[in-house]
Every structure is written in C-alpha cells, then in structure tokens.
Design goal:
This protein is an alpha/beta fold. It is built from eleven helices and nine strands. Strands 1, 2, 3, 4, 5, 6, 7, 8 and 9 form a nine-stranded mixed beta sheet that branches. Helix 1 crosses helix 9, helix 1 packs across helix 10 and helix 9 packs across helix 10. The longest helix is centred in the N-terminal third of the chain and has 16 residues. The N terminus is likely disordered.
C-alpha cells in the first residue's frame, strides 16, 4: 500500500494524523541500543495503519510475554532498508516488494536476511466507489475510463480526470500507467494515507464519483465499499521498466526482514519475529481499532492479544 518506489506507506499514523511520507529517520537509533544487560530491539514502522498493526502486536507480545524493551522508528519504505542494513533498526515486518534493495542487501551485501511471510497478501489497484460502479458498470474496465474523465475531474486535476494517490513515497506505477495507457487523467497525491482516507470518506458521504489508487488489506473497504478497475493483466516482468509499465499491479505475499546480525544474535526476539504470521482478517481487526475506533496501538494490540491466544502462543514456542 508497493514493489519499487516511486511510490505501501501514512506519515504520523503512529499518532494517526499523517501518512506515507514519513521523515527519514535512518539516523535515529533506539534509545536502548547498547544498554548493557538490557534485552532490547528496534522495530521499523511503515506509515500505513496495517504496518502499524503488525508492530503494535509484535511490540506488545515482546514486552509483555518475552520481557523486552522495544523502541519503534517510523521510516519510509526505501530508507527503512538502509536503516535495517545499518543495524539502526532490527526488523521490518511488512515489505511490499523492493527487488533492488533485496538484491543489494540480502543477496550482495548479506546485511539483511529474510524472515518469512507475514501471512498477508497485498495488492495495489485502482478503485471506484461501488455505488458509482453499479450506476456505470463499464467504468470497471480501464478501456472505458476516458469516457468518465469529465465526471472524475477535480480542481486539482485541471481539465483531466483525477486519479488520487496517497504519498509519493508509496510503490506506485500510476504516472507511467496513465501515460502508457493513453488515459486522460492526472495523478494527484493526497500526501498520506490519512489524507487519502479523509478525501475518500468525503466523496462517499456526498456520493460523488472518484478514482483512487488503493490497496488491500485495508480496513476502509468495510466503511466505503469500492470496486477494482480491471487494468491490463499482470505478467511476470511487465513492470520491470518503470517508464514502460502498462499492466496491473501483482498480488504480493508481504515479507518480513531482519538485520543479519540481529537474526543471528537476537535470541528469543529474533525467533519470535520469524514465527510472527497472521491473517489479513487479523491485521484488519487491529487496524480498524486503531484507525476507526481511535484506540491507541497498545490498546488495540492488547484487545487483539486477549482474544487470540491460540494464534500468538505459536509464535512463542
């Protein structure tokens, strides 16, 4: 909510006020780092609420079940890889696919190691509100989008239809797609996941049509039903050249990564994070509590932990 970054994340979602354009925090290390005798680690928090949910639950269990002190640092997607390689953070719990960074740090430098599937499959796409799709069923085929450009025009998009994106830091091929598919649209960045959600909710409240970059898993689908627009089918390698992309986004099994030294010497914490694996439904349950019910991440994590013991007990064994 992400494979390459021209874009998977919401700045300030630690406080749930901003979006995916978080500040570069790669120079910030854990305040517990190097404390003698202290079991501590630092987790990278991506700026969308789903990633925050992963970290909230992992942090809660690491602190309350395993006795660790956990620091968190919010970093954009690509800088998070740099920080992980440098050991400024120990773990990244939700990556949407960054092949260049994986090649550099996992395969070449070997400073980062894979920690397995998160258990959640991510998918980016273009969506219209379901109420608009029901009125105009053909809008769900990209070939018909130009027909609706006038209805989807906004002051920000000028004389073209608006394709709303979140943060420029997210994985997105949208500018190339608009150009290569010859669409009469302008990509307009809301600035963050939170700002994008606010705009989507406002459009929905007024029953206005909109076209937006969006992704699953995401709790907002429960509040604002949206229907995906079919783009040209994804085929392996069709997005290899960012300037020539003319295909849909893939379905991506989201991955976890650990700093190589932490993976080797991180003890129970490293073992726990490798086993951390939950479902889309689990993540959305926590995300909804944080984003919509306004619980703090710790409160949401505790509520989930209290009712899912059979799930997380496996991560401790």
């Amino acid at each position: 909510m992400r494979t390459r970054t021209s874009v998977v994340a919401v700045a300030g979602l630690l406080a749930l006020t901003t979006g995916c354009g978080a500040a570069d925090m790669t120079q910030q290390a854990s305040p517990f780092a190097g404390a003698q005798g202290t079991k501590s680690l630092t987790l990278s928090v991506q700026s969308w609420v789903g990633a925050q949910s992963n970290v909230a639950v992992a942090q809660y269990l690491l602190e309350h079940e395993l006795g660790y002190r956990v620091d968190t640092v919010q970093i954009d997607e690509v800088p998070a890889w740099d920080a992980l390689s440098q050991g400024r953070v120990d773990a990244l719990l939700e990556d949407w696919g960054h092949p260049e960074e994986e090649q550099r740090y996992v395969k070449d430098k070997k400073t980062i190691v894979g920690a397995g599937d998160l258990g959640v499959t991510g998918h980016i796409g273009w969506y219209v509100p379901t109420y608009f799709a029901k009125q105009h069923p053909d809008v769900t085929d990209w070939k018909n989008l130009n027909k609706y450009a006038d209805q989807l025009r906004t002051p920000e998009s000028g004389g073209k239809g608006q394709l709303m994106d979140g943060s420029p830091s997210y994985v997105t091929n949208d500018k190339a797609l608009v150009q290569n598919l010859d669409l009469d649209y302008q990509v307009v960045f809301a600035g963050s996941e939170a700002a994008q959600i606010t705009q989507i909710k406002q459009f929905a409240k007024e029953k206005k049509p909109f076209l937006t970059y969006w992704y699953s898993p995401q709790w907002l689908f429960e509040k604002v039903p949206m229907t995906e627009v079919t783009l040209p089918a994804y085929k392996e390698g069709c997005d290899a050249d960012p300037a020539k992309v003319a295909c849909a986004y893939p379905h991506t099994p989201l991955q976890k990564y650990l700093n190589a030294d932490f993976a080797k010497d991180g003890g129970a914490a490293a073992r726990f994070l490798k086993k951390f694996n939950w479902t889309t439904e689990d993540q959305n349950e926590v995300s909804l509590m944080i984003a919509e019910q306004k619980l703090s991440p710790e409160e949401a994590a505790k509520k989930w932990v209290d009712s899912h013991e059979s799930t997380w007990k496996k991560w401790l064994s």
